[in-house]
């Protein structure tokens, strides 16, 4: 038996920012976004389009830390009683911060109690997500990634209440993305799609979204990197990211992401890089398998998964991304310890492959 659930209403297309008035339906709102002139301008566009903005909250940081929530919660407090919906305008860090704020309101301790003491999420403000990158997927998921650098760990705030009520996906909003962020977020989306295939929570619907996303991203991202102002490619990349988000919205991620959390904490490697450079080796680990996951991977990547792994590695390398753990400062002992710990983590336990085979492949890779 399987099930698929995603309640987010999706608005997709260039110029769709204009839909914000009809989505809001007269409600009082707060905008959560980055402290940057580009987002100041976008926030001004939204305020001009739709009446009822109480405040713009720009106390958002990359890889949002639990300790950072106090600042945005304090800024929100004077407006909390009147705000009915949050508009999350930005990339994954913005949308995840908005989800945390939706739960906490003006009380960051609520989130701490949920994450540290397993308290239930009682309520959350409605969220309208407007992604400005093509990789997060958070606009169609029911969780938020929060970091605790002091404790050296990563947490997921998770509840059906955290599905945004709407995702407004306007590819035009990604036109200003620099090459580095285009690559990083695109690789994150690829990882989301691939991770949903070798996942214990996989289902036929998530599989179709994943296949479509992988094919679109593999075709589009290299071309887009060399033609950043191409609107058609931006649209295709946003669609691929959205499809990947829909795929893993019902499966969560798996071993590549669980490995990546330690890499980001230890080496300060951007998330999209940290979660993607291991994908070729994980794909290779299914080469000798005849199971359902391996068969699905062959339908996407071809019959020979060893060759497919090499091609994927070359594809990532051509984007200027290194694919060897050594390139990120790991020796064999550190890497084996990291992978072992990741396999036992929550996302690592979603992995449907053979962990022994994967470990052996990583060992061989480190000895080259």
TrEMBL record:
Pfam family, one: ADH_Fe_C
Segments crossing the lipid bilayer: none
Every Fe-containing alcohol dehydrogenase-like C-terminal domain range: 182-344
InterPro entries: ADH_Fe/GldA, ADH_Fe_C, ADH_Fe_CS, Alcohol_dehydrogenase_Fe, PhpC
Limits of the Alcohol dehydrogenase iron-type/glycerol dehydrogenase GldA domain: 7-171
Keywords: Oxidoreductase
Entry-linked PANTHER family: ALCOHOL DEHYDROGENASE, HYDROXYACID-OXOACID TRANSHYDROGENASE, MITOCHONDRIAL
Protein name: Phosphonoacetaldehyde reductase
Lineage: Bacteria, Pseudomonadati, Pseudomonadota, Gammaproteobacteria, Cardiobacteriales
């Amino acid at each position: 038996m399987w099930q698929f659930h995603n309640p987010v209403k999706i608005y997709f297309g260039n110029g769709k920012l204009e839909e914000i008035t009809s989505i809001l339906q007269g409600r009082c709102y707060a905008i959560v976004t980055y402290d940057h002139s580009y987002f100041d301008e976008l926030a001004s566009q939204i305020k001009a389009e739709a009446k009822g903005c109480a405040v713009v909250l720009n106390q958002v940081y990359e890889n949002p830390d639990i300790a950072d929530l106090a600042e945005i919660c304090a800024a929100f407090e004077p407006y909390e009683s009147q705000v009915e919906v949050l508009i999350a305008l930005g990339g994954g860090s913005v949308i995840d911060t908005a989800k945390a704020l939706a739960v906490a309101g003006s009380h960051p301790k609520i989130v701490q109690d949920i994450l540290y003491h397993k308290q239930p999420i009682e309520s959350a403000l409605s969220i309208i997500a407007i992604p400005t990158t093509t990789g997060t997927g958070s606009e169609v998921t029911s969780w938020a990634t929060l970091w605790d650098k002091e404790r050296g760990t990563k947490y997921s705030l998770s509840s059906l209440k955290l599905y945004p009520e709407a995702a407004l996906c306007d590819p035009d909003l990604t036109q200003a993305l620099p090459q580095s962020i285009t690559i990083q977020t695109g690789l994150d989306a690829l990882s989301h799609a691939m991770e949903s295939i070798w996942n214990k929570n996989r289902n036929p619907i998530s599989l179709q979204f994943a296949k479509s996303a992988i094919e679109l991203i593999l075709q589009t991202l290299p071309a887009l990197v060399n033609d950043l102002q191409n609107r058609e490619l931006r649209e295709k990349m946003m669609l691929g990211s959205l499809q990947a988000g829909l795929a893993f919205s019902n499966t969560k991620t798996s071993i590549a992401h669980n490995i990546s959390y330690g890499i980001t904490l230890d080496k300060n490697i951007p998330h999209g890089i940290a979660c993607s450079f291991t994908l070729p080796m994980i794909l290779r680990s299914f080469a000798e398998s005849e199971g359902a996951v391996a068969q699905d991977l062959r339908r996407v990547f071809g019959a020979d998964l060893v060759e497919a792994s090499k091609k994927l590695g070359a594809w990532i390398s051509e984007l200027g991304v290194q694919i060897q753990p050594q390139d990120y400062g790991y020796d064999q002992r550190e890497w084996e310890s990291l992978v072992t710990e990741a396999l036992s983590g929550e996302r690592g336990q979603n992995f449907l492959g053979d962990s022994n085979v994967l470990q052996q492949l990583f060992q061989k890779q480190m000895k080259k």
